[in-house]
Design goal:
Layout (H helix, E strand, L loop, with lengths): L15 E9 L5 H8 L5 E6 L18 E14 L2 E7 L10 H5 L4 E6 L8 H9 L4 E6 L9 H8 L7 E4 L4 H27 L1
Parallel strand pairs: 1-4, 1-5, 5-6, 6-7
Antiparallel strand pairs: 2-3, 3-4
Length: 201
């Protein structure tokens, strides 16, 4: 940069920033997803699971999990020179849901991460975004050893509207997560355009 201008003589691009939520059940991979794609060191608010939490934290299918997010995960990714996403991973347990309203303020859209071994764990997140008309897609995190199901079977099991995208992904893989985030942005933009058209007609 030279005097606030690029070396090619073009003015610097002021990126558009969007807020994306990453939600889903306990142990579904939200922290992993944010960490896999964030270009900054993610802010994490993880604490060790305790004996006191065992009666309320269902570890079925995630027996190896030893920590839990108690506030949020935060990361950032630049998709293009002019497009930056801020990622907010929500806590999965019901006792932390009171924070969701504040976190969802101003969000462009959301990813609901799903585990086919515990699909029912993402119902609360789906219901939350549907009730608030926040565009979302479902990312099916393909865990090792988890049963693989066709996208339409997952859609049917979750009773999703036809326009809600469902994508298979690997929350550990940067490129896979990028595709999910691009899908959220596209879906949210389409949703916003449809709402504008409905208002003007």
């Amino acid at each position: 940069m030279i005097f606030g201008r690029s070396e090619r003589g073009k003015p610097p691009v002021e990126p558009v920033t969007f807020k994306i939520l990453v939600a889903g059940g306990f142990g579904v991979g939200k922290t992993t997803l944010v960490g896999a794609v964030s270009e900054i060191r993610p802010l994490r608010t993880e604490e060790l699971l305790t004996e006191a939490g065992r009666p309320v934290d269902d570890l079925s299918g995630v027996e190896a999990k030893h920590t839990t997010t108690v506030a949020m995960d935060f990361g950032r990714i630049t998709l293009r020179e002019d497009l930056v996403l801020y990622l907010f991973g929500t806590p999965g347990q019901e006792r932390f849901w009171f924070m969701w309203d504040e976190m969802s303020e101003g969000a462009l859209g959301a990813v609901v991460l799903a585990d086919t071994r515990r699909l029912e764990d993402c119902f609360a997140a789906i219901d939350y975004f549907e009730r608030r008309s926040i565009p979302f897609l479902v990312g099916v995190n393909c865990f090792e050893g988890a049963p693989r199901h066709p996208v339409e079977a997952v859609r049917g099991a979750l009773d999703l509207d036809d326009d809600v995208p469902v994508l298979l992904c690997d929350a550990r893989d940067r490129e896979s997560v990028k595709e999910v985030l691009i899908g959220v942005v596209r879906h949210a933009m389409t949703h916003a355009a449809e709402r504008r058209q409905a208002v003007t007609t």
